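Aspartate aminotransferase family protein
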Amino acid sequence: MKSGGVFPEQGIPWRTLEQELSEYQSGEMPYERGVFERYWPAYPDEAYLASRSAQSMFAHTNLFSMNALPSLKRVERELREMVGEILHVPEDGAVTLTMGGTESNFLAVKGARARGRAMGITRPNIVIPMTGHPSFDKAGDELGVDVRRIEVDAEFRAVPSRMRESVDENTILVAGSAPSYPQGVIDPIEELSRMAADSEVWMHVDACVGGFLLGALREVDPATPRFSLDIPGVWSVSADLHKFGLCLNGISTFSVRHRDLQSLHTYTLPEPGWPYRGYQRIGFAGSRPGSTIAAAWTTLRTLGREGYVRAAASIHRSARRLAEGIERIDGLRVDLPPEAGILVVFPEPEVDLESVSSAMLERAWDVSTALAPPSLHILLSPHMEHIVDPFLHDLREAVAQVRGEGPRATTAFTYGD
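Tokens:
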């Protein structure tokens, strides 16, 4: 075993390592300045502190051995039950906990492919809007499924009639977003579900961003559309607990209308398939940290319905204030209503947004940009209303600076950088 580089020859005391980690973090952006992108979402203090304590209580546990840990088994079951209540999962339905939204969407494609195979489909395809998440392409590449991306309308929403034209006898799944990540708008899920039902195709909703916001937001703004399994034609929903579920990172959900659909993303290797014992896992992962499950359980129990409604109301207020303030900045406009925690800002032709993003970074604000069409992409969090005014002040200055100086050299980045 080689040592002497980063890997030390002898162990280092925690206090020394703690100081080293603090030094690593010292040059990073202050938390409140980064909540629109790199630190999103901002967690309510009471839920954050409680979930960290729960996480440490279960830091040694592995969900693979859940039957040997009755406490963890109960926590996991109750977490799935809470998710089921929030997302309107029927009694005959099922919730699978995953590590992230990509895995959740992957399971939807995997389940639909298995169903398609049973129907004799050998060259499967899925039909999604142009704004659908890249995880569908990733799943398609890995599973041998063709992904058909269909142009959206002027508001960047899926157009059911256009998508219907691409559905054929080999289509195994149709998907919509609630909301789409690039522009933050909600696809017409009810119309898409009727179209999918007419074609007898699996209808999946990617609500990884909005799944744990939209239900609470309906109590604040009744115009918020339905998106989940309370719509009869929806077969499955993916929703990230680590986004607007406000849970610590590393946990998403994949919910299906009928329990037998869960068997389509369950892997079984019966005895004597290998020398140990029979193997069965629901979902993709084998080992999973019990600490993440305990932290999420604690967040949902700490906040409760009232806590999520308060968070949704705060996001709603911040979105309106930001949109109104940005509309008053010469050179910027807000063309789309901020429906689900994402605010998208479009420029006038003379304003280079990459330069604006760079100028905001100089002012210690982290704001990302989308490519097509060019736009600022602002992710909202609850209880951050006190930073709206300073953010608008600096954004106004940044736009004026860029308009005066012209475009600057910027570094290209990819989604997730």
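The CA atoms of residues 271 and 278 lie 5 Å apart.
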